């Protein structure tokens, strides 16, 4: 790319977005759009496409150039007109035509549900903004890129396609997203923009899925289309594969701005594939994909479960409130639950493990922009305005090279911080059983100056570890205490300024030599007579086990739960997100809590102690005084009791600090219980400045104070107050000897701000805090700017007071600069780190962390990495006790354990296996002889029969020649073998009978004969006239001919699969798919066949029909007619399983949430289960052991369950690490239960008791149903619209069959040529 172009300076607004990494993209920050901007509107509809828009300059797409673009309703742009949507909307990448897909799904803009706008734009402001984004995403290769043209397409508040139902209202879930193509003569870049809350649905349901509740995630990426030779797929790039990866589009980024994604998609220089930006964090390294025709590699870490929040604070009536830069952080819990219909959002998690500013020059912090500095609504902003101001340097840095091959997303788990056990609160009434235990407490703690015990019990339990110990949570460079290494801690009954709270048993002294890893990497360890203590290094603040740089901003992530009565209305919320940002060098603390139900959020406005805790922790320190974090570190418990007046409502707050995460964010869990006075909607809360006096003991802090507040709405003004008792307990290190108890300290809160935004669903608090001596009223004195926060030091700098009002600024550790402007030091790039060999250094803002390479683990110092010794493999070293190799196989679990399974042909536990006598089970044809062998058997047809032993037919015999045949043979011999044209030869039919019409040679002289060949008098004709003769033999008895839509299957093993309105037949040659012999077995017009199974006893196929709401069957014999056996009491019958031993069938109904059974003729029907089911789908039966298995793909709690065939002993078998378990099969030979998961993309197996779980294949597409046969699995796939075979042992994809008629395949089953009989047939009988 030419490097001589003049670079546009980076706009301040884009710089702010890059630095404030938690600041999600807002809708008004999209590129300007609207009809006033010259946008064209796509017609309303379900499958609309634009006329070709001629471009002013050809656009490069990989190595080709195109002069026009088409825009489609379904979230896609192409260089050619689109095919019908059924040919591409529900299919996976790649498409067979060029595609730019910001959100490829079945979108419908009918009935005014949104609009699609598009235009080409060459205005300077748009070109400049697009150039800034590209330069930020590609600082090395495109730092000087100045586009000459842009193409913009915006999907505004568009909805998913929905079937129109009488009286049903359309869904309110609407999506907004935008794509910008920026290009010149040499290069093309694409920007995908997803504003916060812009994606409210994440996929669409296929039109032909009918009652089957499936949703295909949207596809995002690029496809070049088919190559010129039409024999291979062109390059493509796929960014999403699961619903979670689609959710993360607006929460993550590949260039550091949540919701913004940049790609290099065309160039005049060689560009093998679409190249993503990598400034926002390294994309995951490519790894081998499935061994299919085209290898895949993975580039986007989009699969973790992230949430997004907003830390902007503003008060429309108070101009002094400043706006902090935001920062991402991962919450300790990846799921949120709220009783009312809210969806939780927390801060986005960093892509690739933490985002750093893309260039050191950009690291200085600036105030967060208010929304007003962004372009106003796209319909109103002037097309000629330039929203960008001061000139700054372009971005620099490095980026990865293009990734070759086909690219698909990488599943990545979300990161979780340590979490304490949570005690459920059931009651709002405080228990009087006793005070709540505190950390280290073996009796109780008096948290208040009065002698009243702190409430406890079900409403206010201690959310701390048991046995009075507070865990040592791991932070960067920390290792928690384990096992017997914990000191023994005891607690006296009361806390006062002179009380010894913690006592240690030093019988087993711990020393720095063995335990220094418990200290922070920014601390030093000191041995004392009774043990060791950790102390933070100079320029760091904390208790030694947790140290943070002085002067640097700090962040808090956490969850909030509560049981409240707002007035008399009960409100419950669970695990909603809390995020806090603290500017420690001036004492500002900002807290945001998202998605508390509105009545409770409004009522909590006066409760500033929720966020005030963080103000005390990181308060601005006056000389000689310390804030809370220097005492507590990141492990403590804060309890507060608040009594409101005049109503005397009481509420209890418990906040538990759970350590620092890998990015030094404090993890906090908050619980709120009790009653609060209701506050009407739209009222604002005002809390005046206040002061609090904190009293200290060795391991506890107490404070009691009163606060007044006012509630205003227009001219209305209400006053209120509350009294608050607070208690903070922590674990101090006592080995250093008795320390002087700190004198009381005064926390001065100068500015207090509380706001609830119902539109955003966010409750915000902001406070400005100083910690210092107890003040008495006196004349005002001059205050140094370091103490009142009026200094001009950088937010990452420490303010050092001088004489009078003089002061100096010094950058915090991990930053460099003059103090008024500080930028992050990249310790990894400069070598200023202590990561040892075989480890990787990862830079963080103001710090770094070390991670071991794959196959290595940390030693105690958390810096050196040593090789992980692989666990023993009992299957290879011979230490297992499985049956001999020819009878069983050993299954290694990878953790030193194993399990055993008998090979096919043997039965037993795996540790002992005995041969199965298949001959005793009558598996051969009755006309065949069975020969048993160890682990196997063979069938041979008896003499006089032909066949493979499983099917035998009579061998044909030579019938005697008839009179006609003997006469014909005699005359031919007389004529010398070849008669003349005038010589008569008798005409015989296939059975040797005389044909009714006989003629003289080739002449026209003909006559009729009887069955014996004698001429019938009067039938001889004249030349040119053929006599009418009647048959000489009675016609045979005619059997019914097969239905024209039924093709009888051939003998042997084959697969039957459901494909909408038909059942397909796919023969197997061994285990290989005989694709050329596939055919339609049964056409069922108007049906949608989902579940399918086979009764080998009567050779009948059974199926469920979700369109007709029936269960039917049909014999595989020629001429058989389908028979409906159940046609009532069904809503959405899906999975079906046949027990041919007991002559019963079992099915799931996802509409009624039931599992039922009946006889094979539909009689004796019984509901087995109708509770604790949400979306039951697949079902399988083990007739030998009498077990039933089924899946429930409930998105909130998917599971696989089991019970007896009578419905007894129901239990959950698997509920961890599963997503959408669509397919389920039981293999009677290996005794394994296996499932195919469309959420995790895995094919996994387990033993019937749930043990021995292992993954067979990790990269499925979108499986629906699965069946096991021999050493293969066969599953239907909704992305491939075909049948895919997988080897059981290797997990490799072997082959696939794609029917000519492309539509989704549902159930699949295998048909065997033999059927083992059972000895009893009762419902509850056993074999």
Derived from helix and strand composition plus strand pairing, the structural class reads mainly beta
The proportion of residues forming helix, as a percent range, comes to under 10%
Instruction: Characterize the biggest β-sheet.
Output: 11 strands, mixed, barrel
Shape: elongated
The number of helical segments is 11
Strand order of the largest sheet: 26-27-28-38-37-34-35-36-30-31-32
Average pLDDT across residues?
77
Report the radius of gyration as a whole number of Å. Answer: 39 Å
Distance separating the two termini: 75 Å
Q: Count the strands?
A: 81
Region (Disordered): 274-308, 341-485, 1019-1042
Keywords: Basement membrane, Calcium, Cell adhesion, Disulfide bond, EGF-like domain, Extracellular matrix, Glycoprotein, Repeat, Secreted, Signal
Biased composition (Pro residues): 1033-1042
LDL-receptor class B repeats: 1099-1142, 1143-1185, 1186-1230
Description:
- The protein has 1327 residues and is mainly beta.
- The strands form 24 sheets. It has an eleven-stranded mixed barrel with strand order 26-27-28-38-37-34-35-36-30-31-32.
- The chain contains eleven helices and 81 strands.
- A hairpin with a 4-residue loop joins strand 73 and strand 74.
- Residues 782-823, 824-866, 871-914, 915-951 form the EGF-like domain.
- One of its GO terms (molecular function) is Wnt receptor activity.
Keywords:
1327 residues; mainly beta; eleven-stranded mixed β-barrel; 11 helices; 6% helix; disordered N terminus; disordered C terminus; secreted; calcium
What's the layout of helices and strands?
Layout lengths: L11 H8 L20 E2 L11 E9 L2 E9 L3 E3 L20 E6 L2 E2 L6 E7 L2 H14 L11 E12 L14 E9 L3 E7 L9 E2 L11 E2 L1 E5 L12 E3 L4 H5 L12 E8 L7 E2 L19 E6 L35 E2 L67 E5 L78 E3 L10 E3 L7 H4 L7 E5 L4 E5 L3 E3 L4 E3 L4 E13 L2 E15 L4 E7 L3 H6 L5 H9 L2 E2 L7 H4 L2 E11 L4 E11 L5 E11 L7 E3 L3 E7 L3 E14 L2 E15 L14 E13 L4 E11 L12 H4 L8 E5 L5 E5 L3 E3 L4 E3 L2 H4 L8 E6 L2 E6 L3 E3 L6 E3 L6 H4 L10 E5 L5 E5 L3 E3 L4 E3 L12 E6 L2 E6 L3 E3 L4 E3 L8 H12 L22 E3 L6 E3 L45 E6 L2 E8 L2 E2 L5 E5 L5 E7 L4 E6 L4 E6 L7 E4 L6 E7 L4 E6 L4 E6 L6 E4 L6 E7 ...
Parallel strand pairs: 17-19, 26-32, 29-38
Antiparallel strand pairs: 1-7, 2-3, 3-4, 5-13, 6-8, 7-8, 8-9, 9-10, 10-15, 11-12, 13-14, 15-16, 18-27, 20-21, 22-23, 24-25, 26-27, 27-28, 28-38, 30-31, 30-36, 31-32, 33-35, 34-35, 34-37, 35-36, 37-38, 39-40, 41-42, 43-44, 45-46, 47-48, 49-50, 51-52, 53-54, 55-56, 57-58, 57-81, 58-59, 58-60, ...
GO biological process, one term: cell-matrix adhesion
Subcellular location: Secreted, Extracellular space, Extracellular matrix, Basement membrane
GO molecular function: calcium ion binding; Wnt receptor activity; Wnt-protein binding
